[in-house]
Write a structure and sequence with these properties.
Length: 439
């Protein structure tokens, strides 16, 4: 009965969202991919908001319910049936009465299962489609027949592009396939990434350091250079500083936003200025002050093999004793054991201490052992609270702690125990809503 009511709710919300899109005709930017969707959506919002009235998906609101709710401007009602009825009423009124509606929508679009994006593409008219990185083993691959099937599902957002629309895509080994699909559809293509052939390229990455008397230096963000390639006027470059996050891959979201800015006709200078208002979302390589003079890298929003690899490689570049607190990577299906052990092998090269959380993460510990990490430097736990208490006890001044795991492992609870000021957890960490806290 509950599932039936949910399907009915989704169907009604979807019909209301279609009516609203048809009535107000907003320009739409749809962001999908396997890595960095939320941060990319937020960076694009900062750029578009510099000159337009724009609405974006709240947090990671990218599901079959999340997309219609964003279009309707309604909140997640969680388990409150009266709040859902209010959402339905508000959506109906918006679709039949005059209202001031955003010129642009920036929508995050997820694909947990086959058909999630292709069904959306049948009714959502998109002006700019953005596809972030599609790694070899993406998250949610468990529910697809193959990795190629995941790529196909993500690529189906191209079918939503209006005539003359633009595909903004991460430059990697999938680029040619996606370019051909887009051009066959009659769309333009703009690429971004670290590849020298990308239209928007990031380079010269370095941590931004802050020095405190008697405490040494610690990272507070990243500096980089954005270069835009133009056949008309040659290449143009501009420096970009992103505060609060660490890692070269954290620059990919501003790069994608700069690509969107170029599609909108913005100068690189104006785009970089607009990105000054971009606040990286919590739980994505977020730098936080920890107890005992430590630095926490909070990457607890979610986890996947590509994201773990990028996070560990970033950890390796930082000074001090390096600790990796890693939880299960979920929804990997038959790839799970191999990918967890590969992560462990990388830990042995990039970290001094490993703490695992969860049943699957035992394979991370095994991979680290098999690749030379000492047993005395590896600690294994089944739940986040016990792991957090153990990490808090072992930390020393100057340590750098990376904390990363899939959503269900709830490693934000570890970060909360390590914060120098735990009272700030509601404003700094992911999943701090009352509904999440009850789970």
């Amino acid at each position: 009965m509950k599932n039936f009511l949910k399907r009915c709710l989704v169907w009604v919300l979807l019909q209301e969202a279609r009516l609203v899109v048809r009535k107000y005709r907003p320009k739409i930017i749809a962001v999908t991919g396997s890595v960095g969707k939320t941060s990319t959506k937020d960076a694009i919002f900062a750029v578009v908001a510099a000159g337009h009235y724009v609405r974006r998906s709240d947090k990671s609101f990218n599901s079959e319910i999340g997309v219609p709710l964003t279009i309707l401007g309604c909140p997640n009602a969680w388990s409150n049936p009266f709040a859902w009825l209010q959402n339905l009423l508000d959506g109906l009124l918006l679709s039949i009465t005059p209202a001031r509606y955003p010129e642009w929508l920036v929508l995050e679009v997820g694909a947990d299962r086959p058909g999630d994006i292709s069904s959306l593409a049948r009714w959502l008219p998109v002006d700019i489609a953005v596809i972030t990185r599609l790694p070899e083993v993406p998250v949610h691959v468990e529910y697809f027949k193959s990795v190629d099937a995941v790529v196909e599902e993500k690529a189906s957002i191209i079918n939503a592009l209006r005539p003359g629309g633009t595909l903004v895509v991460y430059a990697d080994n999938h680029t040619q396939l996606l370019r051909e699909r887009a051009e066959k559809h009659g769309a333009n293509v703009v690429t971004f990434g670290f590849d020298g052939e990308a239209d928007l390229r990031g380079s010269n990455f370095a941590p931004l350091l802050e020095t405190e008397a008697g405490k040494g230096s610690h990272p507070i963000g990243m500096s980089s250079t954005i270069t835009i390639r133009s056949t008309m006027s040659g290449s143009m470059s501009a420096p970009l500083s992103t505060l609060g996050v660490i890692g070269s891959h954290a620059i990919l979201s501003p790069l994608a936003a700069a690509a969107v800015g170029s599609v909108l006709g913005m100068s690189l200078e104006d785009t970089v200025a607009a990105l000054g208002s971009y606040e990286p979302p919590h739980g994505r390589m977020h730098l936080l002050p920890g107890i005992k003079g430590t630095c926490i890298i909070d990457d607890t929003y979610n986890s996947s093999p590509a994201a773990v690899e990028a996070a560990l490689n970033t950890l390796a570049t930082l000074k001090g004793r390096r600790a990796a607190v890693l939880g299960d990577m979920l929804e990997l299906g038959r790839h799970s054991v191999d990918e967890h052990r590969k992560a462990g092998a990388l830990v042995a090269k990039t970290a001094d201490v490993l703490v695992t959380v969860g049943f699957r993460a035992r394979d991370i510990a095994q991979g680290a052992l098999d690749n030379g990490m000492q047993d005395d430097d590896i600690f294994q736990f089944e739940d986040a609270a016990r792991a957090g208490e153990a990490v808090a006890a072992m930390l020393q001044s100057g340590d750098v702690v990376l904390v990363k795991g899939s959503q269900s492992i709830r490693l934000e609870r570890v970060v909360e125990l390590l914060l120098v000021d735990p009272s700030r957890a509601p404003e700094l960490l992911v999943r701090q809503d009352a509904e999440w806290k009850r789970r």
